[in-house]
Amino acid sequence: MRRGRTCSGRTPRQFAKEKNHEFDTGVPQQARRPARGTAALVAGLGPAGRTDADVRIPDRTRSPLPALTPAQRAGQCVIHSYPGPTPPARLMDAIGQGRTAGVIFFGENIESPSRIEGVIREMNEANASAPVEAPLLLMTDQEGGMVRRLPGEPLLSAKDVGASADPEGRAEYTGNGAGLNLAGVGMNVNLAPVLDVYRRTGDFTDQYERSYGKRPEAVGACGSAFITAQQNVGVAATAKHFPGLGPAAANQNTDLGPVTLTTSAATLRGIDEVPYRAAISAGTKLVMLSWAVYPALDADRPAGLSPTVVGELRDRLGFRGVTVTDALEAGALQSYGGAARRAVLAAAAGMDLILCSARDVDQGDEAVTALSEALADGTLDGTAFDAAAGRGNALRGSLF
Known about the structure:
Layout: H1 12-16, H2 38-45, H3 70-75, E1 78-80, H4 89-96, E2 102-104, H5 113-127, E3 137-140, H6 158-163, H7 167-185, E4 189-190, H8 204-207, H9 216-232, E5 236-242, H10 265-272, H11 274-281, E6 286-289, E7 293-294, E8 298-302, H12 307-316, E9 322-324, H13 339-349, E10 354-355, H14 361-376, H15 382-398
Parallel strand pairs: 1-2, 1-10, 2-3, 3-4, 4-5, 5-6, 6-9
Antiparallel strand pairs: 7-8
């Protein structure tokens, strides 16, 4: 596929005229352009569509980490966030001192594409002095349709794509558009696509048009097309929310409170996990785990705090890439203490990246401190933690 075009040869701008959706930033739409250095990003990621084993990181990025302070060591597994359009000095200090692995951006951070491009340039300049010589992970949720942080592509929602006459072609188009859009301002990770297989019209996933459909094979095919196209233009993809929020009813929102999904193990494995097998085969760089509880797999803990569910992903499905939590501040975790305890529990469960997305630098710093202390007192296994940090830093190294 020629970059920036659909299989039919239409440009993103031509295709976008077919369907126009509102986006959540309030920023006027304008033409995107690939950032300087996008070619290097593409070269670093390599062709998508390979198996997970094939997309492992080159040997040059596997060397041991330099000597790190306790806070720097802990920070390799933490993603920070911040309020408003201007990053606070404390966040820039954390970046420059190597106490964070990256930043997640929201609509409130993006006054305009040119402004966020400038912010990202400043972050990259600060990161140049950090002890780990690897790019920051600079991410957002650019799913398409209702869930977009940047103006522009993808305009089509997953539901639009799944209902189209050519779902895989449209999924390829939206993945390409998302990748070009993010790379155009300097971001290198998209927390998309959603691979939830919804059950009923109007349920949790369907009401926001975030699912490709009700058939797991079709969801897997669309998700894989999105992943391949996006990673071909240099932006790492994130398949979410493992093992699946498709069974959730309209009022079962993990952002707001605890959710338990009583789906059988056979159904989870025969329906909800099916798209992940396809995504892993397509080479997805990251997988985000759900905060719902799945009693058929682990009755006691949400998926992202469960070594059993992480093991399902790693051992049963064979995923070797980077695991990332959903929002650490989610209401689903209300009985698990504050950010400090949640971060330690997530790391202990096998999560590689802790997503501190409350738009509060203190949240990320609190997670870093807690992880550092848990490593020092033996609450966290240092070997396992460093392996998780190594996976995250290998991903970062691949984004040169």
